[in-house]
Design a protein that fits this description.
alpha+beta, two-stranded antiparallel ribbon, 2 strands
Amino acid sequence: MSLSSTKAAAKAEIKLILEEMLTRENNSTEEFANRLVDVIENWLKNATIKYINGLSAPNGPVQGSFNGKLE
């Protein structure tokens, strides 16, 4: 999966967190931060690494620069 395909779901989860936190009498920045980072972490775990080129390993350890990007 790509980040763009799961962006809407992550955005909805973040909005839900914000709405819940705004309706409380006692707000906790610690809880907000924990919940937010959990959503971001789960979203990033859906990233796909698109490998372009740059690494080689003919008869030893992998060498070179990784040329790619998260999608």
